């Protein structure tokens, strides 16, 4: 009698558990199925990421660019003597600040684009339409040194910047634009190099070595200290 009672109780427990499981499962399934929003309620990505009147910058590429290099000159200066030498750099490439997307008066002002990129990079940049040119001070390097034996040259470089951008959200009558701005920092820098010393060099110095050091760029030179 007691055995039968225990069996009935056990069976009732199993049935109760089964009943609970079968009751809760549809509820869980209903909660996991998302309700499709109406078309007007769906978020539009550009409204979340685009701000009217603001330039959005993508990839900003900063490069060291060789713009001029002097002839390589051989020197053998004995101990106890010093000499003054002049190096005149000759341009190797031209630069012009450009913006790839055609702009109208109703669209992005090129000056505003440059100002925005200056804020983005923290670098003073040339205005769109500016062409690069070397001044006399950029071309001529005068230096004095003592005991030395080797071949020297002067390389002149600038820091160029290329950045992709997006402007306008295509709403409120504002035209949506995409393009690339290419410009450079107005300050040039020069580097006096000695051929044949195996040390790490900048891209500007390496290109100057390859041009002027008679095949010695594979053993890059260092700046003269």
Summarize the entry for a quick read.
The protein folds into 2 domains: 2-30; 46-223. Strands 1, 2, 4, 5, 7, 8, 9 and 10 form an 8-stranded antiparallel sheet that branches. It has a two-stranded antiparallel sheet with strand order 3-6. By secondary structure, it is α+β, with helices and mostly antiparallel strands.
Explain what this protein looks like in three dimensions.
This protein is an alpha+beta fold and 225 residues long. It has two domains: 2-30; 46-223. Helix content is 28%, strand content 32%. The longest helix has 31 residues, at 2-32. The radius of gyration is 35 Å and the shape is elongated.
How many strands in all? 10
How does the overall form come out from the CA principal axes?
Answer: elongated
Listing every helix as H and every strand as E from the N terminus to the C terminus, the arrangement reads: HHEEEEEHHEEEEHE
Mean pLDDT across all residues, rounded?
77
Q: State the helix count.
A: 5
- Computed over alpha carbons, the radius of gyration is 35 Å
State the share of residues found in helices, binned by percent: 25-40%
Count of spatially separate domains: 2
* Cα separation of the termini: 107 Å
Q: Would you identify the regions where 5 or more consecutive residues have pLDDT less than 50?
A: 1-34, 44-48, 216-225
What percent strand?
25-35%
From the helix content, strand content and strand pairing, which structural class follows? Answer: alpha+beta
Largest sheet: 8 strands, antiparallel
């Amino acid at each position: 009698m007691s055995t039968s009672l225990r069996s009935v109780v056990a069976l009732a427990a199993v049935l109760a558990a089964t009943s609970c499981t079968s009751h809760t499962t549809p509820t869980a399934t209903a909660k996991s199925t998302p309700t499709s929003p109406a078309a007007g309620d769906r978020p539009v990505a550009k409204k979340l990421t685009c701000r009217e009147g603001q330039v959005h910058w993508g990839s900003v590429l900063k490069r060291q660019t060789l713009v001029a290099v002097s002839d390589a000159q051989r020197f053998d200066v004995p101990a106890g003597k010093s000499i003054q030498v002049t190096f005149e750099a000759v341009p190797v490439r031209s630069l012009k600040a450009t913006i790839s997307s055609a702009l109208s008066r109703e669209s992005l002002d090129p000056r505003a684009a440059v100002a925005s990129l200056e804020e983005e990079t923290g670098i003073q940049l040339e205005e769109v339409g500016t062409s690069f040119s070397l001044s006399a001070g950029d071309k001529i390097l005068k230096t004095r040194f003592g005991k030395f034996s080797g071949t020297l040259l002067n390389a002149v470089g600038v820091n160029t910047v290329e950045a992709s951008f997006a402007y306008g959200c295509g709403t409120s009558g504002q035209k949506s634009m995409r393009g690339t701005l290419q410009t450079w920092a107005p300050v040039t820098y020069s580097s006096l190099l000695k051929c044949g010393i195996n040390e790490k060099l900048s891209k500007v110095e390496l290109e100057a070595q390859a041009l002027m050091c008679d095949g010695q760029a594979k053993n890059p030179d260092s700046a003269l200290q």
